[in-house]
Write a structure and sequence with these properties.
mainly alpha, 69% helix, single chain
Length: 74
């Protein structure tokens, strides 16, 4: 029983990806420095898009909240 728990735990543990083989990049002849720069740029683009999405979500929720509060009072 304990061995089954350990085996189940081993399957659930997260394995850190190898930084030299970043899964977000296609195989290329770039140097490790260039690969790291591309990964950093890609993550930055994702962060900017995610930030813009959060801002628009907040605006949407604010408009709905405003409509519910002041629209129902009339």
């Amino acid at each position: 029983m304990a061995a089954a728990r350990v085996q189940l735990w081993n399957r659930r543990t997260f394995v850190m990806p190898n930084p030299s083989n970043e899964p977000s990049l296609t195989p290329s002849a770039d140097s490790p420095g260039q690969k790291a720069e591309k990964v950093r740029a890609g993550k930055g683009v994702v962060s900017i898009i995610g930030g813009i999405a959060v801002v628009f979500l907040c605006i949407f929720v604010g408009i709905i909240g405003y409509a519910l509060i002041f629209g129902l009072s009339q």
